[in-house]
Amino acid sequence: MNDVSRRQGAGSHGRLRRTALGLSSGVLSLGLVLSGCSGSPEEPRSRASLPATASAPPGGRDAVATLGEPTEVTTGLDAPWGLTFLPDGSALVSERITGKIRRIPADGGRARTVGVVPDVRATSEGGLLGIVASPDFADDRTVYASVSGARENRIVALTIAEDFRSLTLNRVLLDGIRTADRHHGGRIVVGPDGHLWIGTGDAFEPENAADDESLNGKILRIATDGSVPRDNPGDSPIYSSGHRNVQGIAFGPDRTAYASELGHRTWDEVNVLRAGADYGWPESEGTRGSAGEEPIAVIHPDDASPSGVAYAEGSLWIGALGGQRLWQLPVDATVATAEPITHHRGDYGRIRTVEVAPDGALWIVTSNTDLATWGGTDPRPGDDRILRIEVDQP
pTM to 2 decimals? Predict the structure, then answer.
């Protein structure tokens, strides 16, 4: 284990005190195996493994949304990472290592290359990461992307050709995000407010997450022209801080913002995002520690290592990398209403991204050809692939 790994639990910044861990905390927890992305397990404080305390929805588990059988959308992708839908129902997917953006027909089929994003540097976890189409794509042909480069990470606007056979770099919206071999974050979404919401990692330096001058270990929020929205908590892109490595952001129908966050050795987190809030890293991890906002649910890294997250039919749907499954977390606004539910454990390997298609189905992106990252598994024939799964109402 290197020196950086040893520092992952260190920190000296003062933070908001957490509520005591007890039956009143309302934090859902699952699992007893304490391990993470590197090194040997550390013991949590004795009360960190309390069972879920939120009540189940009326009718029990049958009252939550259920899933149909998966169908295959496309195969043969090379380390796919981000996914976004276009007005015609087709989708664009980013490939982390190649830097390519590829287009998938609305009804599935062969993915065709649109172009290669310039100045992408692939590292253990870096490269071309999240992408999201402009809400006005039909008119402006714009896609926003999270890109890690040789010297820094940045958010860029790309223009997609009318025939989908090329792309060009339009402009850099935000730069100055520190880069590293790992912990890039990388998810980018357009919120219900029309702004770009971006998850960044701590660049493998935990102190970045607590540093108000650093864009790392943060949720960032910017307008689509790169400016800082007037209602941000400060005069910078920073919306919230104290995050270790956010790779999933989603919104509920009431505009509640959720984020999935990879923990170190003890707890992965699902958080509700609040303007100006601090989420505790590196002083706290999940329910371990006394700093920052409480997550609404925690899962051990062996069972999760969460990446993409989507909201559909009253639940969050969270892709697990190391845990190699799809997690379902029933929620009601800012609280989880039942224990997390597991689906397709080991069936498809690592799951990187989950998005809701225009017809309401989930599209699930696997990540088994991306063997450089932690929690790898041997690719199955046809990997990597995208699966479509219908969500049935509760």
Answer: 0.88
